Amino acid sequence: MNNTIFDDVFRTMIEKMPYLAVPLINEVFHTSYPQDVPIIQLRNEHRQENGEIITDSCLKIGDKLYHIECQSTDDTTMAIRMIEYDFSIAVENAHKQGRRYRMDFPRSCVLYLRSGNNTPDFLGVEMALADGNIVLYQISTIKLETYTKDSIFEKNLLMLLPFYIMRYEKNIHEEIRTNLVKELSGADKAALYMDLNKLIIKIADYICQSEEVVRKGIGDVMGGKVLELESERLRAEGEKIGEIKGEIRGEAKGEERLSILINRLILDGRSAEIKSVVTNAEIRKQMYKEYGM
Q1: Residues in Cβ contact with 215 at an 8 Å cutoff, skipping those fewer than 6 apart
Q2: What is the tens place of the pLDDT at every residue in 207-231?
Q3: Is the pTM of this model over 0.85?
Q4: What residue spans define the domains of the chain?
Q5: Which of 7, 12, 111, 259 has the fewest Cβ atoms surrounding its Cβ within 10 A?
Q6: How far apart (Å, rounded) are the C-alpha atoms in residues 224 and 12?
Q7: For the purposes of burial, counting CB atoms within 10 Å of the CB of 89, is it exposed (0-12), middle (13-18) or buried (19 or more)?
């Protein structure tokens, strides 16, 4: 089963709405960052000798690094993958202290969209170092199924909303659609809710491939293109309309300006120059300058 849709939606939120990750970071790591805390998005591609590895997200808040991976299934190799990702992040952000380097590992967690009874609260890797010391590398996990619709809104974990419908993938019905529509309303956050709606329908469309009627019901309320955020689409449309209006105004203004110049030439007995002014933009520009227009 192709689960890249979940990666696409998660990365769209991380890259275009990174502030949504702040409440999630507060929830997992027991921090208390405000929603508007400055966030630096670090690059997600890390070069290694045997190829490139790509992480879902790497964010910097203050002097702390945060790494969040989104998993649609309980992959038992995730602990090893996480330490590989984290090591690459730490190496790239290492800094020198005298003759010694310091590597600060990111605070990491895995968001499990689906989980089971065996999905642990922490992933662990026991590292036996060359000097005989044994270090336990531990990664937090967060499971979507442990959150209700109410708790998501109480804790402002809006990043989980597009994936919330996954909890009902075997029983999607009118009540869920109605509840989501009701929760995602409010003029004060219209753009955010529009954008979340589009990401929700992206996942719902994937999950409900065999539920044509239900999918259409959800789409009627939340429909539209996805991954390009709705606010971006509307903004682009507005800019296009503005450009068209500007071109129309510019053309009208240009015609009026040329008409005035032609009248000036006639009054000055320079009618012979009118043809070159009309057909040659460079000469027209010079004439505008000559007449101070």
Answers
A1: 204, 205, 208, 209
A2: 766 445 444 444 444 333 335 565 6
A3: no
A4: 1-146, 148-228, 235-290
A5: 259
A6: 16
A7: buried
